[in-house]
Amino acid sequence: MSEKAKVLLFRAFYNWLEKNRKAIDERWYIRLSKEAKKTERILSDDNAGAIAGAMWILNVISNLGVGAGVSPEGYDLQYLGNLGIDKISTRRLLRKISECLKLGKEEKKRK
User: How many Å separate Cα 54 from the centre of its chain?
Assistant: First the structure.
């Protein structure tokens, strides 16, 4: 499940990058696409890898002007600093981040 969660998370991130290509500037789009591919490759295919990927992506989008609270229970989109950021793809990505954080909560329950 966690490998699939990581794949779906990064797919949502690549979609978010594509939808927001103009809003984040072409240089950032290219740089973040490369960094995301590298990050996806080096992260493990377990729960920890999916959670680490989720936190990395949340940090990236926060630095691009997305203000949101995210937990295993959901997310709360507070602010889109860059007016060109696509709200629908941002909400979809935040939902995927939250789903990955649930993996950590489920792991705790099993122990």
Answer: 5
Whole-structure pTM value: 0.91
Q: Residue 84: which residues within 8 A CB-CB, separation 6 or more? A: 20, 22, 23
Max intra-chain CA distance, the chain: 45
What DSSP character marks residue 102?
Answer: H
- Give the residue from 69, 74, 66, 72 showing the smallest Cα distance to 23: 66
- Residue 109, pLDDT > 90, answer no
The encoded tokens of residue 21 equal: 């290509």
Neighbours of 10 (CB within 10 A): 21
Q: Is 24 exposed, middle or buried (0-12, 13-18, 19+ CB in 10 A)?
A: buried
**Across the chain, how many H-helices and E-strands are there?**
5, 2
Q: Tell me the residue length of the chain.
A: 111
